[in-house]
């Protein structure tokens, strides 16, 4: 079907493809990436099932940026299709995880209460290691949850602020600190100094404002997950300490990544580490040796504006290292990258490596579905389907 001749059915057609998606399987862990940027909405929403629980990670989606090559109404349709796909799967989930408070990672409870009702929420700590805009958004989310899920009128549970332990660059990214950046080194020192100052300002903010307390809202319980392990029978859900959302001291804040383990098998969800850009995070991902990896890429569509050549090169080099060091891992590499028609060119070293290694198990979600990323289809006028080698049959469900 030619996408350009039947634009109005695009969101519906993609939804059909998503519904037929092969699961990612590792032992008794079964997972489905419900939507991602390669399907035309900003999203990295994942449903994972083990014999002990079903967990829905980052149930949100946003419309693509204005430069994405479709009409605004179609961008909204694709976002709605993503959110509907997520809401339709939410009934299966016992636990909802939210890795940070960007709108593409959680849905508004006043519009999508069914996603949250009766669930156990494991969320990014809204009180510390969070930038100001996410600090406010988290409080809006909890207010909306209280209103929707506790019958309205419930006050946000607040308590006095707590001290936040200082952490230095050598605690936070020792490996990246040792990297040689050549002629960029002096500029990098300035960037890091500015970042340290911003972090000190934020710490004073965290330590001076009231903290939200985890609480039960109606039948929905909320726990702050940063750096914690949660056991559900034979399944462990392990959250990292806060990680920078991209580069060191990124102004956009922090995320938590998630590992889900059962029966000696492991799925790792990176959240928004952007490549990763920081070398320490690539080393950590490799050291985890996950069987399934959901990895986000660098936002190449912001190249030359918010993303510099140095940091784009770092992100691509780190993704290549992960691809080389985890040859047996099934990797879905999506989010940020397929917002940009030039993403293959801008991350060329990665795609050169994947081609030379004949690596089919490292792809965007669209390619996992046997399609091409929508941004490419829309810019070169070809079709959505059957342009990519199918995923290895051993990875398809029986
Ligand atoms: Fe984000
Ligand atoms: Fe995101």
Write the layout of secondary structure elements.
Layout (H helix, E strand, L loop, with lengths): L9 H10 L4 E3 L2 E8 L7 E6 L4 E4 L14 H19 L4 E4 L21 E4 L8 H18 L8 E2 L9 H4 L1 H5 L6 H22 L4 E2 L3 E2 L2 E5 L4 E4 L2 E5 L3 E2 L9 E2 L2 E5 L2 E5 L9 H10 L3 E4 L13 H17 L4 E4 L9 H4 L1 H9 L5 E2 L1 H4 L5 H7 L18
Parallel strand pairs: 4-5, 5-6, 6-10, 16-17, 17-18, 18-19
Antiparallel strand pairs: 1-2, 2-3, 3-4, 7-8, 9-10, 11-12, 12-15, 13-14, 15-16
Helix pairs in contact: 1-2, 7-8, 8-10
The structure holds fe (ii) ion (2 copies).
Describe the structure.
This protein has 398 residues and is α/β, with parallel strands linked by helices. It has a single domain (3-395), classed as Metallo-beta-lactamase, Chain A (4-Layer Sandwich). Helices cover 32% and strands 18% of the residues. The protein contains 12 helices and 19 strands. The protein has an 8-stranded mixed sheet with strand order 1-2-3-4-5-6-10-9. A hairpin with a 7-residue loop joins strand 2 (29-36) and strand 3 (44-49). It is globular, with a radius of gyration of 20 Å. The site of one fe (ii) ion has 4 residues, from loops.
Number of domains: 1
Mean pLDDT rating: 92
**Distance, first to last CA:** 28 Å
Structural class: alpha/beta
Query: Which regions are unreliable across 5 or more consecutive residues at pLDDT < 50?
Result: 1-6, 389-398
- Continuous helix count: 12
- Envelope shape: globular
What is the helix content? Answer: 25-40%
The strand count comes to 19
CATH superfamily: Ribonuclease Z/Hydroxyacylglutathione hydrolase-like
- CATH class, named Alpha Beta
Largest sheet: number of strands, sense, barrel closure: 8 strands, mixed
């Amino acid at each position: 079907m030619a996408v350009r001749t039947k634009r109005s059915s695009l969101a519906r057609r993609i939804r059909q493809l998503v519904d037929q998606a092969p699961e990612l399987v590792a032992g008794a862990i079964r997972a489905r990436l419900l939507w991602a940027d390669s399907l035309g909405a900003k999203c990295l929403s994942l449903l994972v099932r083990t014999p002990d629980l079903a967990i829905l990670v980052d149930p949100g989606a946003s419309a693509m940026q204005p430069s994405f090559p479709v009409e605004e109404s179609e961008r909204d349709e694709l976002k709605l299709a993503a959110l509907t796909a997520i809401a339709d799967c939410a009934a299966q989930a016992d636990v909802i995880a939210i890795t940070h408070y960007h709108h593409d990672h959680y849905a508004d409870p006043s519009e999508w209460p069914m996603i949250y009702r009766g669930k156990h929420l494991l969320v990014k700590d809204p009180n510390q290691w969070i930038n100001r805009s996410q600090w406010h958004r988290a409080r809006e989310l909890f207010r909306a949850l209280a209103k929707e899920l506790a019958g309205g009128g419930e006050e946000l549970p607040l308590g006095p602020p707590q001290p936040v332990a200082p952490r230095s660059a050598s605690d936070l990214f020792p490996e990246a600190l040792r990297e040689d950046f050549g002629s960029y080194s002096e500029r990098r020192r300035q960037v890091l100094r500015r970042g340290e100052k911003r972090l000190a300002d934020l710490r004073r903010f965290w330590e001076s404002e009231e903290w939200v307390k985890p609480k039960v809202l109606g039948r929905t319980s909320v726990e702050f997950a940063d750096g914690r392990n949660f056991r559900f029978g034979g399944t462990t859900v392990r959250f990292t300490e806060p990680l920078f959302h991209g580069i060191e001291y990124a102004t956009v804040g922090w995320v938590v990544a998630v590992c889900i383990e059962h029966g000696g098998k492991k799925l790792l969800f990176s959240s928004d580490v952007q490549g990763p850009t920081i070398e320490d995070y690539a080393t950590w991902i490799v050291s985890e040796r996950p069987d399934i990896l959901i990895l986000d890429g660098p936002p190449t569509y912001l190249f030359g504006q918010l993303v510099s050549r140095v940091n784009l090169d770092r992100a691509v080099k780190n993704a290549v290292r992960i691809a080389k060091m985890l040859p047996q891992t099934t990797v879905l590499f999506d989010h940020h990258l397929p917002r940009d028609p030039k993403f293959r060119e801008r991350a060329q070293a990665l795609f050169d490596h994947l081609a030379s290694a004949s690596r089919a198990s490292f792809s965007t979600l669209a390619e996992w579905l046997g399609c091409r990323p929508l941004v490419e289809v829309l810019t070169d006028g070809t079709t959505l389907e059957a342009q990519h080698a199918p995923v290895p049959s051993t990875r398809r469900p029986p």
